[in-house]
């Protein structure tokens, strides 16, 4: 171990103060933003991802067979099922780059009638929302195309849905793509069908019914939402209780309480981070919280195990010195393992989207906070609890921590730099026989 030690106990008040500042930032954010940005899991209602996109062409079918239109990536797929079997026609963007080319290709198929609405749209930007795969009939089926020329802002969406009252609108991705996440809370008497109809009617009146594409649609009822919230809270509390029991059995009560304080610290700081940046609270967040609890506990157990080992090996040293020594000995391991984990998660936080990206962002922050708490917060509380137990027992119990760092550091440093004893290995003499004895 290096002679320089991490002064955990010396800087314990600074560490706690920094945590309190971060928690205060979360409280301020809760007041400013009016609480958490709850997702559809925890806030009953309708959640839709909607894109405003122009219509490129319409397709109809006048035959008696079953004709189905679907979109796979940048390829339009037409299947006609009849008595003679299934005929599949594929229109890839490489062969049919524009909506005009698609119209020509579709009209080559018997009883298919395709009409161009906007011939300059690109086939690779075809949108496959709700309603696909679509069964074709004599009624025309519109095909929408994503484009960055749609002039619809988030304020336009909010104005269009303002009459609903309890609605939240967020931009998804680049604002030029006109993709929005719309969340509508339930009111008495509302059903999924009635809420979807309200949103479609208002957006259709504002932007045109044919240009509103539903990309994602979720609905959670009030009973399921409240049950999910209570179940999530119970799951976290049970995890905390089991962890405390495990640490208590493996070490002792002071270690268990200190570990639990560190875990509560990690959860509260994660919630503050979510509040400040208004990340969505959903079942993904609960998964991130439980993952962070396990990761932080692992680091804490490693450090506490080293403290227990050093207590047995250095009975003359005070608890502050032993804690500093143990954290220093474990610091390289905890730091490198945390960096490795962050490097593995960071690409998901940068390159993905949706729930996976949200989970990765929360996990990266949680790993950083968990490493910090296991090295500074939990050991500091272990020192305070150990000191309190010593005072309660009249100084006869665990180390009271009264010795200062200056008084005890010289003793520990002297032990560390003490020259190792040289042990002489005895030489075993064997009796030589025969020719070897004569040669000697």
Secondary structure elements and pairings:
Blueprint: H1 12-33, E1 37-38, E2 45-52, E3 55-61, E4 66-72, E5 75-82, E6 85-92, H2 99-107, E7 112-116, E8 134-135, E9 141-144, H3 154-160, E10 167-171, E11 179-185, H4 192-207, E12 212-220, H5 222-250, H6 253-277, E13 280-281, H7 283-313, H8 319-351, H9 354-392, H10 405-417, H11 435-439
Parallel strand pairs: 1-13
Antiparallel strand pairs: 2-11, 2-12, 3-7, 3-9, 4-5, 4-8, 5-6, 10-11
Question: How does this structure look, described?
Answer:
With 440 residues, the chain is α+β, with helices and mostly antiparallel strands. It has 3 domains: 12-40 and 224-403, Multidrug efflux transporter AcrB transmembrane domain (Multidrug efflux transporter AcrB transmembrane fold), CATH 1.20.1640.10; 45-50 and 149-220, 2-Layer Sandwich (Alpha-Beta Plaits), CATH 3.30.70; 58-144, no CATH class. It contains 11 helices and 13 strands. The protein has helices spanning 12-33, 99-107, 154-160, 192-207, 222-250, 253-277, 283-313, 319-351, 354-392, 405-417, 435-439; strands spanning 37-38, 45-52, 55-61, 66-72, 75-82, 85-92, 112-116, 134-135, 141-144, 167-171, 179-185, 212-220, 280-281. The strands form 4 sheets. A 4-stranded antiparallel β-sheet has the order 10-11-2-12. A hairpin with a 2-residue loop joins strand 4 and strand 5. Helix 6 (253-277) runs antiparallel to helix 9. The longest helix has 39 residues, at 354-392. It is elongated, with a radius of gyration of 33 Å. The relative contact order is 0.12. The model is unreliable at 396-430 (pLDDT under 50).
């Amino acid at each position: 171990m290096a002679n320089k030690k991490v002064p955990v106990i010396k800087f314990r008040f600074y560490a706690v103060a920094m945590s309190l500042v971060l928690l205060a930032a979360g409280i301020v954010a809760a007041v400013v933003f009016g609480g958490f940005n709850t997702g559809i899991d925890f806030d009953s209602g309708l959640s839709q991802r909607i894109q405003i996109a122009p219509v490129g062409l319409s397709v109809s079918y006048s035959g008696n067979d079953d004709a189905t239109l679907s979109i796979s990536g940048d390829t339009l797929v037409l299947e006609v099922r009849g008595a003679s079997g299934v005929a599949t026609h594929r229109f890839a963007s490489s062969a049919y780059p524009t909506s005009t080319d698609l119209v020509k290709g579709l009209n080559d198929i018997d009883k298919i009638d395709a009409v161009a609405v906007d011939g300059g749209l690109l086939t690779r930007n075809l949108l496959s929302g709700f309603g696909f795969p679509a069964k074709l009939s004599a009624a025309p089926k519109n095909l929408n195309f994503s484009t960055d020329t749609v002039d619809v802002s988030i304020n336009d969406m909010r104005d269009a849905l303002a009459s609903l009252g309890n609605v939240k609108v967020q931009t998804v991705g680049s604002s030029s793509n006109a993709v929005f996440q719309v969340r509508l809370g339930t009111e008495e008497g509302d059903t999924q069908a009635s809420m979807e109809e309200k949103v479609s009617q208002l957006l259709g009146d504002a932007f045109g019914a044919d240009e509103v594409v539903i990309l994602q649609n979720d609905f959670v009822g009030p009973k399921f939402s409240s049950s999910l919230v209570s179940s999530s809270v119970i799951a976290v509390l049970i995890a905390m209780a089991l962890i405390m029991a495990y640490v208590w059995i493996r070490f002792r009560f002071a270690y268990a309480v200190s570990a639990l304080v560190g875990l509560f610290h990690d959860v509260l700081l994660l919630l503050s981070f979510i509040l400040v940046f208004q990340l969505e609270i959903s079942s993904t967040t609960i998964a991130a919280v439980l993952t962070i609890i396990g990761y932080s506990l692992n680091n804490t157990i490693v450090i506490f195990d080293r403290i227990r080992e050093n207590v047995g090996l250095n009975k003359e040293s005070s608890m502050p010195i032993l804690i500093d020594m143990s954290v220093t000995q474990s610091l390289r391991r905890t730091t490198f393992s945390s960096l490795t984990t962050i490097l593995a998660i960071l690409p998901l936080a940068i390159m993905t989207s949706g729930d996976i990206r949200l989970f990765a962002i929360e996990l990266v922050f949680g790993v950083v906070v968990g490493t910090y708490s296991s090295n500074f917060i939990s050991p500091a509380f272990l020192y305070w609890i150990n000191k309190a137990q010593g005072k309660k027992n009249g100084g006869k119990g665990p180390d009271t921590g009264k010795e200062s760092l200056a008084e005890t550091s010289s003793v520990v440093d002297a032990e560390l730099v003490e020259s190792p004893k040289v042990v002489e290995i005895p030489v075993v003499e064997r009796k030589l026989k025969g020719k070897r004895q004569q040669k000697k």
